[in-house]
Amino acid sequence: ELMESLRRVIVDNLSNGLYPLPEEAIGVGSAFEGWSPREWDGVYRVLVPLSPPPGHTFQLEENSAGQMAARTFSVRVELVCTCQREQQGEELLCFLHHSQKKLQWKPKPSLLRTLCTGSYLDAEKTSHWFYELVKSSWLQVPQSDSWHLEVQPCSRSCKLWLSQGQRSLMVEVLFGVRQGDSDIFVVSQTAEAQKGSSRTFGRSWPAGANFIPSTAWPETHAVAEVKFFWHIARQVPCERLHLKCLQVSTCLLRGTGFSSSVWKTVVMHVLTTVPLSRWSRSEFAERLWGTVAYLGRCLQLKRLEPFVLGTKRLPAGISVPPAMPGLELPNLFEPLARDPAAHREAMHAY
User: Matching InterPro entries, A to Z (predicted)?
Assistant: First the structure.
């Protein structure tokens, strides 16, 4: 509710500009999926989709593919003709066809000159732009009367520290561009990149991910995963049993090198292979052991596929780009397949 109030104020302040327009924020990650891993950092992450302003389009260009689950894209900003369009009764300036004299007579900030590097949307410039927007807009938000806000800029996101008496919470705002009409986004910063390069078995992001170019936007399936867990909660006999299974699994193997993202991937696969009618309270131990056993089989095969990419088992309400089902699935355990010593270490940890 607070993020939506802030967004509406920001959109009102941007109504006469040529900047990206923030859409309704989407909660992502475990805090919004309904569970908390042992190592949860207490930060509520929200993804704010950005839509192009009038006269502009966003075109996604893939940068990398292959064995890493997290592909990266560049967001090319292109100009489109607005000669026949009006906004609030006023003729829109067309950056393609209006004369330079007219453009100079009615100067407006250009997205390409402010938030782009070359022709590509810059994640770091976008983050700084939003940081300044929040600072200048906060006092217009109704909740500012009861909440104190401190804004912390980050290179690829924006952190909001909110306090109200003894209550406090940290919200991290990520920025994204939707792939078509799907639930798959390219995002300014991934959760994997934020966690650094600690040793884990099964990584969806390469070491050194914090040093990717500012015009590279990693792909994320976080929105699709949240929707998947919401769908499952409505189908299983015991609403939160699958989340308890996930939470207990991550706690049991704390310190073994298996990240919570690996466990979440395993649980999502198991949820589509075991009938949902069997996720009852009386079968909790069996479901928990089945999850651990599924991981064991993946380790023996040295292969774990990401759940959303290319799967044919997604519920009907979750949309992926048309090309995704035909993609060659990456292997989250590729490092174990290439390194016998790492595989032996993972089997020992298991």
Answer: MAB21L/cGLR
pLDDT of 206 reads 45
**Distance of alpha carbon 197 from alpha carbon 207, whole angstroms:** 5
Separation between Cα atoms, residue 21 and residue 286, nearest integer Å = 48
Q: What residue spans in the chain does CATH classification 1.10.1410.40 cover? A: 235-349
Sign, CA dihedral 333-338-342-348, equals positive
pTM for the whole structure: 0.86
The pLDDT of residue 55 is 82
What pLDDT is recorded for position 275? 92
> With 0-12 CB in 10 A as exposed, 13-18 as middle and 19+ as buried, what is 54?
middle
The strand pairing partners of 185, in sequence order, are: 178, 220
Nearest to 24 by CA among 50, 44, 43: 50
Give how far the C-alpha of residue 350 lies from the chain's centroid of Cα atoms, to the nearest Å: 29
Q: b or e along 141-164 (b: 16 or more beta carbons within 10 Å of the residue's beta carbon)?
A: beebeebebebeebebbbbbebee
The 10s digit of each residue's pLDDT in 16-45 is: 668 999 999 999 999 999 888 877 788 999
Phi, psi of 136 (to 5 degrees): -80, -15
pLDDT at 87 exceeding the cut of 90: no
Q: Tell me the HSE value of 31 on the side-chain side, using a 13 A CA sphere.
A: 17
Other CB atoms within 10 A of residue 21 CB? 16
Nearest CA to 199 out of 12, 335, 18 is that of 335
Could you tell me where in the chain the CATH 3.30.460.90 domains are found? Answer: 1-191+210-220
Average pLDDT of the chain is 84
The answer to whether residues 40 and 31 touch, using CB atoms and an 8 Å cutoff, is yes
Pick the CATH number of 1-191+210-220 from 3.30.70.1290, 3.90.420.10, 3.40.50.10350, 3.30.460.90: 3.30.460.90
Burial of 117 (0-12, 13-18, 19+ CB in 10 A): middle
Fold of 235-349: Poly(a)-polymerase, middle domain (1.10.1410)
Question: What percent of the chain is predicted at pLDDT more than 70?
Answer: 82
